Amino acid sequence: MRQSAFTVVCAVSVLAALAPPAAHADSTDFSGQIHAYHTMQPSSNTLQAELLGNTTLGTVNLHAGATMQAQQGDEAPGITPSRFNEAYAQGSAVGWLWSAGKRVVAWDVGYGFRPNDMVQQEVRRTLVPEPLEGRPLLMAERFDADTAWSVVWVNPTQQAFATGAQEAALAARAYWHSGAVDWHVFARQGERSGASLGMAASWVASDALELHASVRGDQQLVGGTWTNTQQISLLVEAWPKNVYARVSWQHERWQPALDVLYMPADQGVLATASVVWTGERINIAMGLRATAGPDSAVVRHMSYQRQGYVVASWPF
After folding, report:
1. Taking the model in full, what pTM does it have?
2. Does the N-terminal or the C-terminal CB of the chain have fewer CB atoms within 10 Å?
3. Do residues 38 and 309 make contact, with C-beta atoms less than 8 angstroms apart?
4. Region 53-72: what's the mean pLDDT?
């Protein structure tokens, strides 16, 4: 059964990739990617088709993004139902831009952790990046060259007992640019979690250095990035009980990287080495993630102490 399911997705992916060039030339609002994954620990093969489309009906813009995938492996579920990552309508009225439907709305300035990710609440630093699945919402936005305002009613039809990313909530963000600093102020009223306020800032100190910080209640993050003329970049961030660092080098078509998450409380370490090659028609990424530290460290009790992956992607 799994073999048949995998074959079905293979066929769909190939047909999408080989669509007539004339169709693509006449329609600039359709695109997508095909991803082929192989992961080790647990061992699995995944084939994923990601499709994106945009169109306009009068004064209303329609956007949709969908994913279909199948897996082979000891723990793989076979074919998985297709899902819409995004599907929303957008239009302007009374000076605001309005959106309704399922949409990805990512806020805050952090990389490894985002205290003020009030809408999407994305799981950060997964082994293999996946297309984000948006949240059902109603959204109003207003912006100009230096300021932006956003108000979101997320999960408006969700039950009152839902928590976390599924919780119904009202959220708002104010943004303004002042000199070399970008300022953000956030507010959220959750159905169960109640009210919270947050603030973030990003300062471009020079052509090479950027510093950022974010705070919301007892969750704080500070960090910065440094990039030299040889395109070597260093990112360092700290938040409660965690220190994160990433070094990468962009050299022509290649980008090797090493990132390390260190937990001082129990001296646990989670490290990932990766390399990405970007071609004209295909992109290749591979990496290895491993844990380290004393036996008492939390990461030493993860199901898998070493994991690896290889991903090939074909955009079209």
Report:
1. 0.86
2. N
3. yes
4. 92
